[in-house]
Amino acid sequence: MARLLRPGVRAYITSQWRMASDHQMGELGKGAGKGGGAGGSIREAGGAMGKKQAAEEEMYYRRKEQEQLAALKQHHQDEIEHHKKEIERMQREIDRHKGKIRMLKHDD
Hints:
single chain, mainly alpha
């Protein structure tokens, strides 16, 4: 279970880090930012190539985040189904024990 939750936490931390770094870099794809390196030589050069690379990176992160959210949602659905089955199993056990009690009362 921890393995399934870890990507969601990772995505949150990554998105927070990217948002914080956007403030230092200025507009994505416009060349080197205030704090030094802004993501490689293509981005540092700026222009259309830098903007394209920045857009592709953002699409990649959005896609990854959507995949992680879908996996987390599926995990929760699986957990719900598991718990429903457990409830049904426990209800059968309760009914079985009630039957035993009825049998004992009849023996008296």
